[in-house]
Amino acid sequence: PQGMKSLMSDMLKTAREVWIFNGSDKNYLLKNIPKFYYNRFLREKKKLKIKTNIIYSKDIIPVNGPGYKIKKLPKDYFAGKVSYWTYKDRVYIGIWTEELMVIRIISDDVAKVFKNGIKLIWNSLK
User: Fold this and answer.
1) What is the spatial distance between Cα 10 and Cα 12, in angstroms, rounded to a whole number?
2) In this structure, how many other beta carbons lie within 10 angstroms of the beta carbon of residue 76?
3) Which residue from 14, 38, 29 is spatially nearest to 94, judged by alpha carbons?
4) Per-position pLDDT tens, the chain of length 126
5) Taking the model in full, what pTM does it have?
6) Residue 60, SS3?
7) Which of 107, 59, 64 is nearest to 86 (CA)?
8) Nearby residues of 14 by Cβ (< 8 Å), 6 or more positions away
């Protein structure tokens, strides 16, 4: 949960638009992050007008709210237990094991590659 809280805090400080592949499962967040923290994050995100684009797979219940655009992967596509979020010059890779592991990369070039990959998939979905 600490890695996810760090990601959420960093997103509020630096992001204006976020691209997410195989997005965070709402049930996981509500189970592992204090509800007041989760609700404050959503309020701040709305106040800061941070746009969020999420592509998710069949096993995920995506976070939703003002500023969110969501697309679902085809039902036969299995994205596994890996998610990634990209914004500004950052990429966070989440590995959904028993304890969520989050890896952060700060690089304009890496963030651009991840963002372009998500946009390519985004544009191919209905």
Assistant:
1) 5
2) 6
3) 29
4) 678 888 899 999 998 899 999 877 777 777 878 888 888 998 999 999 999 999 998 777 888 888 999 999 998 887 778 889 999 999 999 888 777 888 999 999 999 999 999 999 999 998
5) 0.89
6) coil
7) 107
8) 87, 88, 90
